[in-house]
Structures are given as structure tokens and as C-alpha cells.
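FAQ

Q: What does a record look like?
A: Structure on top, sequence underneath. For example:
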């Protein structure tokens, strides 16, 4: 496995800006169903009720993304990892800003530690 390239400060800025501009958290995975979008797996601003609501018993304005719209076949990943993909998207919404903040904090700590080491070496 190759090591991914480290993110630049500019890329961290871009990720932070993208997260800031996105629909506010929290995001949830929902399993919905209807005669038009059979077996809809979606990322939503409201939690799943477990009822597999059929349209019009759910508000389409709460849906942020879909990883499966089976009928007609609008969204249907070949690997069939609809649920896993939806879970990742929903989790990434909260994780990305936290990861950006942690990277910035660690870089700041590393820079401060490096400065201290150079100061001690000059004495």
C-alpha cells in the first residue's frame, strides 16, 4: 500500500471551506421506499425512523445525497456498497472538520517543538 501524499495548507483550507459551506450537521443515513425510487438509501438531515417511509411521507428537502435509487436505476453502485457509502458520507461530514483541526493542531505543536529544539541547540 502506498503512502498518500500529505495535505498542503492550501488543501486543508479548501477542505475547511467546503465543510463550512455544506449543510450543517448532523447527517444521518435513511432507508426510504416508494413506487418511484424503490429502495432509496439516502443521507439526510433527519434520522432514520426504521419505517422505510414511502413518499410523500418523507420530506424530500431533508435528503442531501443518495447512494441507491433502485427503480428506476438512477443511483446504483456496481459494488453494492450503498449502505457503507452512505455511512461514510454521513460520518465524513463531522469527521472532516475535526480532522482538519487536528492536523492544524499537530502541525502547530510540531513547529513549536522544532523551534524549542533549535533554541536549545543555540545555547
Amino acid at each position: 500500500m502506498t503512502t498518500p501524499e500529505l495535505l498542503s495548507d492550501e488543501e486543508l483550507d479548501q477542505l475547511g471551506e467546503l465543510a463550512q459551506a455544506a449543510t450543517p450537521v448532523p447527517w444521518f443515513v435513511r432507508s426510504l421506499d416508494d413506487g418511484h425510487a424503490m429502495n432509496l438509501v439516502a443521507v439526510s438531515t433527519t434520522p432514520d425512523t426504521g419505517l422505510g417511509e414511502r413518499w410523500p411521507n418523507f420530506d424530500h428537502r431533508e435528503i442531501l445525497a443518495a447512494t441507491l435509487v433502485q427503480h428506476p436505476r438512477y443511483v446504483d453502485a456496481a459494488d453494492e456498497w450503498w449502505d457503507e457509502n452512505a455511512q461514510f458520507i454521513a460520518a465524513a461530514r463531522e469527521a472532516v472538520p475535526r480532522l482538519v483541526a487536528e492536523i492544524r493542531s499537530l502541525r502547530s505543536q510540531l513547529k513549536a517543538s522544532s523551534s524549542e529544539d533549535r533554541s536549545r541547540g543555540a545555547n
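Q: Is there anything notable about this one?
A: The chain has one domain: 9-115.
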